[in-house]
Amino acid sequence: MRGIQVKEYVNGPSDLTVTTLPTPTPSPTQYLIAIHATATNFFDLLQIRGKYQHQPPLPWISGSEFAGIILSSPSPTSKFRPGDRVFGAAQGGYATHVCAEEERLRAVPKGWGFFEAAGLMVTAPTAYAALVTRAGVKGGDVVLVHAAAGGVGLAAVQVAKAFGAVVVATAGSKRKLEVAKAYGADYGVDYNEKGWENAVKALTPGGKGVDIVFDPVGMVETSLKCTRWNGRIVVIGFAAGRIEKVAMNRVLLKNVALVGLHWGMYATEEVETVEVVWRGLEKLMEEGKFRGTVYTDREFVGLETVGEALGMLGRRETWGKVVVKVPQEGGSRL
Question: In 127-226, where do the E strands start and end?
């Protein structure tokens, strides 16, 4: 197979190279998958530099999210059979082949292609679990989605709209606000502009503020200014690069519920909820209320373009999920 192997930590994505490697041999509980599309993530940028909290022992193959075709199954009674179309997440996504356990895979939704499905495994359930499981979104809620043009942000916009909420999207450019609105956001506010919190409040009934804040950036402190009494703030991550400190008296004075969402730990701590979340998402997909969030302003084809795709992602030059098409030897370019 071909893949991007990290033998030593690199300075950045431009240092990544594609090499020919032995095709991995699945363990007795694993599937072997031929990858047709692979999705990029911010944590890939950290991992290749040795700065992520989960670092495999060197050498390892970079990448995580993918979509492709099952080549071999653990047993004749396995859930997936050779030829089945799946998407999932496992270490080694930047390659033509990968091995994965069954719980790390799901069937590609009906009507979806590999390109659209490759970036589903992380962002879609994160958005759904945050808004539905943790924040209890309902019809009529006003939901503020930060970084709304990112992969998880666009997923959150769609989930909130599917439940009947009014969505106020924030982003840092006109183009990204246009993308958020194209995915259903009712309003767009540039959070680089001074006083954006007041602009958000002005969009809410009676100017009282939003009901729910979806925050993958690290903007709790400023978001409290435009959160209403009994509001809910869900902390998803810290894309801004710092762990903020919040004046907790402001949380108390507004009677705000401040909760976190660590989706990756549900498989360990609350496994029964994982299937509930996915069933909810699949229902939205079947109803046409949730679609892929893939960046389409330019195309990335071949593992050789992964470094460039990651570079653009790191420089905040993209929107949605940046997905690389991975042509299989002797196959089409998708």
Answer: 142-145, 166-171, 187-190, 210-215
What is the tens place of the pLDDT at every residue in 279-294? 999 999 999 999 999 9
Q: Which two tokens stand for residue 145?
A: 């989605």
* Cα separation, 28 vs 47, whole angstroms: 28
Q: Cα separation of 104 and 50, whole Å?
A: 24
Longest CA–CA separation in the chain, Å:
64
Which residues touch 127 (CB under 8 Å, ≥6 apart)? 152, 155, 156, 158, 159, 214
Q: How far apart are CA 156 and CA 195, in angstroms?
A: 24
Beta bridge partners of 101: 30
Bridge partners of 235, per DSSP, are 215, 260
Question: What's the rounded Cα separation, in Å, for the pair 293 and 276?
Answer: 22
Tallying the residues shown for the chain, one arrives at 334
Enumerate residues 6+ apart whose C-beta is below 8 A from 175: 319
pLDDT at 333: 42
pLDDT band at 330 (very low <50, low <70, confident <90, very high): low
Closest alpha carbon to 6 in 51, 53, 59: 59
Model's pTM, two decimal places? Answer: 0.92
